[in-house]
From TrEMBL:
<comment type="similarity">
    <text>Belongs to the 'phage' integrase family.</text>
</comment>
<dbReference type="InterPro" id="IPR044068">
    <property type="entry name" value="CB"/>
</dbReference>
<dbReference type="Pfam" id="PF13495">
    <property type="entry name" value="Phage_int_SAM_4"/>
</dbReference>
<feature type="domain" description="Core-binding (CB)">
    <location>
        <begin position="10"/>
        <end position="130"/>
    </location>
</feature>
<dbReference type="InterPro" id="IPR013762">
    <property type="entry name" value="Integrase-like_cat_sf"/>
</dbReference>
<dbReference type="InterPro" id="IPR010998">
    <property type="entry name" value="Integrase_recombinase_N"/>
</dbReference>
<keyword id="KW-0229">DNA integration</keyword>
<dbReference type="GO" id="GO:0006310">
    <property type="term" value="P:DNA recombination"/>
</dbReference>
<protein>
    <submittedName>
        <fullName>Integrase family protein</fullName>
    </submittedName>
</protein>
<dbReference type="InterPro" id="IPR004107">
    <property type="entry name" value="Integrase_SAM-like_N"/>
</dbReference>
<keyword id="KW-0233">DNA recombination</keyword>
<keyword id="KW-0238">DNA-binding</keyword>
<dbReference type="InterPro" id="IPR050090">
    <property type="entry name" value="Tyrosine_recombinase_XerCD"/>
</dbReference>
<dbReference type="GO" id="GO:0015074">
    <property type="term" value="P:DNA integration"/>
</dbReference>
<feature type="domain" description="Tyr recombinase">
    <location>
        <begin position="105"/>
        <end position="287"/>
    </location>
</feature>
<dbReference type="Pfam" id="PF00589">
    <property type="entry name" value="Phage_integrase"/>
</dbReference>
<dbReference type="InterPro" id="IPR002104">
    <property type="entry name" value="Integrase_catalytic"/>
</dbReference>
Length: 313
């Protein structure tokens, strides 16, 4: 990881070592280092000189004045708590009761028709192929970006995801149409390693590129297609395709533990959020109850029932 110019201080190298020993991904290391940098910039002094009271005031500022979202606050809490305890050896009482507010917002999902509307408005072949792969395989954005040719198992029709979130490997089913789409796209650039290499301005460098497509470019393509499709739901992003994949599988009767495995969730509770996004289970339950509870009215007590009902108006 390249050291940012604003972090060229003694604590930075120690922080990165601690992050690595804790098994954090490079992305998490960068996120945690960024949280520490913002604290330093806020007080304009080295972190070892920041007091417990100042840290408390900083958290209150983020919550009450900066109005940070609960999810962003949680990341900041975790980053600074880890840094002060494990790097600076500050085991303050603040960390014993410090808790981030939980965010109970359910993720947005798109119906298959809405997904088709968006994808049909994606202008370029590489962005279209990328987004189809994300949706039909339920991948995270970076998992799809870093897919390699060797990850595609055409015989078993599976994709091998290496070092997903939490550094976990997994296999996900590869739909036949997506497989053929990926083959057609690969024949365009023929990069020996990457499925989605950076194209460059002319597109000619894709065959030799050692870096994947730009996150910003594919996110911009998705936003443009979403707007052209007239999808006005809030909080719809590329990651929404993954939520939509999981919800659709659940609606089609796929076991929730199987979905958990495909998504790479460590905890079943994470996958269970999709139960709140579908009415399918509730509708099925009503039909089962309605069918199972028949036969109890056999006419033996119809006389008593008629008298009872006569008094109801």
């Amino acid at each position: 990881m390249t050291k940012p110019k604003t972090l060229q201080t003694p604590w930075y190298d120690e922080a990165i070592k601690a992050f690595q020993l804790a098994g954090m991904s490079e992305s998490t290391q960068q996120t945690y280092a960024r949280a520490v940098r913002k604290l330093i910039e806020f007080y304009n002094k080295e972190p070892q000189k920041i007091t417990e009271d100042e840290l408390k005031k900083y958290f209150l500022h983020l919550r009450n004045e900066a109005n940070w979202a609960p999810s962003t606050m949680k990341i900041c809490f975790c980053a600074l708590k880890f840094f002060f305890i494990n790097v600076l050896q500050r085991k303050w009482p603040l960390f014993e009761y410090l808790k981030a507010q939980k965010e109970n917002r359910l993720p947005s999902v798109l119906s298959p028709d809405e997904v088709r509307k968006i994808l049909s408005r994606v202008r370029t072949f590489h962005n279209y192929t990328f987004l189809v792969t994300v949706y039909t395989c339920g991948l995270r954005l970076k998992e799809a970006l870093y897919l390699q040719v060797s990850d595609i198992d055409g015989k078993r029709m599976m994709i091998h995801i290496h070092r997903g979130k939490g550094s976990k490997d997994r296999y996900v089913p590869l739909p036949e149409e997506t497989y053929h789409l990926l083959r057609r796209y690969w024949l365009v650039h023929r990069n020996p390693v990457l499925i989605f290499p950076a194209l460059g301005r002319s597109g000619k460098s894709a065959s030799t590129s050692e870096t994947p497509m730009s996150i910003d470019s594919v996110q911009g393509a998705f936003r443009a297609a979403r707007e052209q499709a007239g999808i006005i739901k809030r909080h719809v992003s590329i990651h929404t395709l993954r939520h939509s994949y999981a919800t659709y599988l659940l609606e089609q009767g796929v076991n929730i533990r199987v979905i958990q495995r495909y998504l790479g969730h460590a905890r079943l509770e994470t996958t269970m959020v999709y139960l709140h996004l579908t009415q399918k289970g509730q509708e099925d339950a009503y039909q089962i109850i309605n069918q199972s509870m028949r036969g109890f009215e056999n006419g033996r007590h119809s006389k008593h029932l008629s008298r009872a009902c006569a008094g109801i108006s």
